[in-house]
From TrEMBL:
This is RNA-directed DNA polymerase from transposon BS. Keywords: Nucleotidyltransferase, RNA-directed DNA polymerase, Transferase. The keyword ATP-binding does not apply. One of its GO terms (molecular function) is 2-oxoglutarate-dependent dioxygenase activity.
């Protein structure tokens, strides 16, 4: 009995076919729902091929617009530790948003795009310093390591809290006591037929859980 407002609805056809033969647009009571190639859902950009290129592009654009303020703060001779605080609050927070959703699925070149944002920021705050030295001075981790930590922390909270909304998505626990291995897995990981599924947050985190 859901009533659709066609003026506010959009259709996102998801297909992995190279031919890109899409079905005809959906019509509801004579009104056509506009098909789109990407859509933003709760701040996360999802495209028709379920890749993260469009979302990372949005993050890079948003972060680049705020880089200008780092330059202005540096010119105003604001202490470096305060500029770092601004960077973490206003720029890195945009990079971190919903990172567990896409962290394990990012190819290397998209990870480098995110890392490049932080490299530019620290080059402004600590001019002439190597990236590794600037990270040490700022007390920050690389974007990859930071997102890894956030993803593992979220997964631990899901496992430990049975009331968590995502707890029901966890694989079955390994309760087989017939075999004793040198390293026993906590979860029975289902077979993944696609790389996309294997690198999803729940699947990949379940494999890493014993190492977290």
């Amino acid at each position: 009995m859901l009533q659709l407002n066609c003026r506010k609805c959009k259709e996102l056809p998801i297909t992995f076919s190279r031919s890109r033969n899409l079905p005809s647009p959906v019509n509801v009571e004579g009104s056509t729902i506009i098909p789109v190639s990407k859509v933003k859902l709760l701040g996360v950009t999802i495209n028709s091929t379920l890749t993260w290129n469009d979302h990372i592009e949005e993050i890079v654009k948003k972060a680049s617009r705020k880089q200008y303020f780092l330059v202005q703060l540096k010119r105003a001779k604001v202490p470096a530790r305060e500029i770092v605080a601004y960077y973490c609050a206003c720029i890195r927070s945009a990079i971190d948003y919903a990172c567990p959703v896409f962290h394990y699925s990012l190819p290397k070149y998209l990870q480098e795009d995110l890392e490049r944002i932080q490299k530019r920021a620290l080059a402004c705050i600590y001019p002439g310093r190597r990236y590794e030295d600037a990270l040490s001075l700022a007390g920050l981790a690389s974007i990859h390591d930071h997102h890894e930590s956030l993803s593992k922390s979220l997964f631990r909270s899901i496992v430990s809290d049975s009331k968590n909304k995502l707890h029901a998505l966890l694989p079955q626990r390994n309760n087989n006591a017939k075999y004793y291995f040198r390293k026993r897995r906590t979860f029975n990981i289902p077979t993944a037929k696609t790389k996309r599924y294997a690198q999803s947050f729940i699947m990949h985190s379940s494999k890493l859980y014993d190492d977290i």
